[in-house]
Amino acid sequence: MINPHRYCVIMCGGIGSRFWPYSRSNRPKQFIDFLGTGRSLLQMTYDRIVPLVSPSNILVVTNAEYAPLIKEQLPDLNEDHILLEPARRNTAPCIAWAAWHIAAIDPEASMIVTPSDHLITREKIFIESIENGFEFVENHDALLTLGITPTRPETGYGYIQISEPVEGCPSINKVKTFTEKPNLELAKVFLSSGEFLWNSGIFLWTAKAIKEAFHSHVSDMARSFDKGVGLFGIPEKETEFISQNFPGCMSISIDFAVMEKASNVFVERVDFGWNDLGTWSALYDNSPRNRDGNVTQNCRVLSYNSSGNIFAVKDDKLIVVDGLKDYIVADAGDVLLICPKSEEQRIKQMVHDANTHFGDKYL
Amino acid sequence: MINPHRYCVIMCGGIGSRFWPYSRSNRPKQFIDFLGTGRSLLQMTYDRIVPLVSPSNILVVTNAEYAPLIKEQLPDLNEDHILLEPARRNTAPCIAWAAWHIAAIDPEASMIVTPSDHLITREKIFIESIENGFEFVENHDALLTLGITPTRPETGYGYIQISEPVEGCPSINKVKTFTEKPNLELAKVFLSSGEFLWNSGIFLWTAKAIKEAFHSHVSDMARSFDKGVGLFGIPEKETEFISQNFPGCMSISIDFAVMEKASNVFVERVDFGWNDLGTWSALYDNSPRNRDGNVTQNCRVLSYNSSGNIFAVKDDKLIVVDGLKDYIVADAGDVLLICPKSEEQRIKQMVHDANTHFGDKYL
Questions:
Q1: pTM of the entire structure?
Q2: Burial code of A26-40, b = ≥16 C-beta within 10 A, e = fewer?
């Protein structure tokens, strides 16, 4: 029996520009079957949540342009459960809207907020961890984030430094600090200290607790959403209110707006497999390799003297490659990217340059 | 006034496998606008011949499967002037059929035989050279080949060693030997000797002279075509005769079957620009480069730290490339080839491997 006061908010508005051109603004990363399983990352996220939260309590927050993709990929989702942002404003306004919306429907609600484009494995542990987290936030005035036990000195993630454990909750600690991506030296210190966890970007709290946190730390935004009380949950009125008030919200992340400021922040140490698939290299590291040490997405590769590459191609395509090592080859029909994996941080600049020189049709 | 006894045979049956996958068996090199001029190599060949030979005397010999492409690209060509080979048998049977066909129509005929997929520049010199060649073969019992004055120690071409000049014909010499592709050392000796010319694969002769040469040097093939005398020039009968007799011909080149054996072989030294576009490197060397030193075919390229590459892509496609030097990148929609220019001689093997592993749809 699933607790009917538990809700889920799937954040699904990202544009996935780091995977351009395989991920495009009209079909970003979360909508792609990135791992070749037959389900997109969004669908995998939904599937993972269904054992935990009643489908009628699952909300997807996304940019208005992705409504058709959401309906296509999640046909079971009630249309009223898709919250369409009229503008891109990072995670804090997105989460605020969802919290005010859910609180209007169910003042007793607790909620999990999750990205739609991460890879999670060992789902049994995931489910146990989330149930444990729900119980914690339902019984404490707490903002809970999930922290992953690090397995390597990763420089691409944010870290959470833990403080004293919570009595009676062996896997939950008070948070001491949030730390942005460290350099390798520092990451090694973090790893060996045992005091640092990876910040997963998955949160649990009650609607009441997160609303209070918005009031305390981003009060302008909270007051802006308060003006809509009485309209949330009434589709036409809510849509009109949001179209008028959402674009005026500051664009800011939930970490920066709330989590790094609040004093009631806790972290649950979890041990499921997790990867934010934030980079081509992360995707390469998490994907099965063929005999030659290449990773392929949706394509067949005939390779000669080539290894360490990732080939991501839309449609069934044959790639014949000779003498290429450690490259990204991403083909999106009208754009072909060939770039060393070591240079992938430059892809955002390349997208910008392509836009400057050739117009926005390639975004 | 064009001499009405002059004919042209355009050989158009090649499959262009060295340019795979940009050139595919269903649309080989000669049908592609390789130089971005708006005209395919075949169309450029036709355009070049029209000032020399009456359009009603131009024949195209090709494989049966290319008939629709020929009609599309050369709409002025009478359908009866397309000789469709029922099987691929190299150049000797192709030329024999054309010679027997033309001799049946016009016993006084002289003819130029030309590939359809070479690049020729300085067309005024080309026209003068061909007119000069026609006059020579119309007045001598001669098989004439065109020899290009070499400008570099090219190892990719065949060479012709010249013997004594013909009295009264300053640009024409007797041929001493034909030499296959030399190594670099030998090519340098050839170049400095002044005795060697590049073998262009363009021939002139009378129908009578080439038929006699077939009788002398490949008599089986000549007797086979003799059986069709009385049927050539009568479309249905000729087609039926060819379908029964052509496939039985030995697959052999005209050089090997006739030119290297005959004693009445002459070469005209010509100075028009010529390149057989036999390799990606040859195409690269003969194409304008962009600022970065890359050559592009039908595509836009945004390049970073990349030079010496050739990008050949069907349809309008944006290529974004970083850190690639001296590669071939050829995209044909369902196949993408990435291969160092220095390894291009392996492409035939790659085509073979692709066929073995993935079936013939990629040929």
A1: 0.77
A2: ebbbbbbebbeeeeb
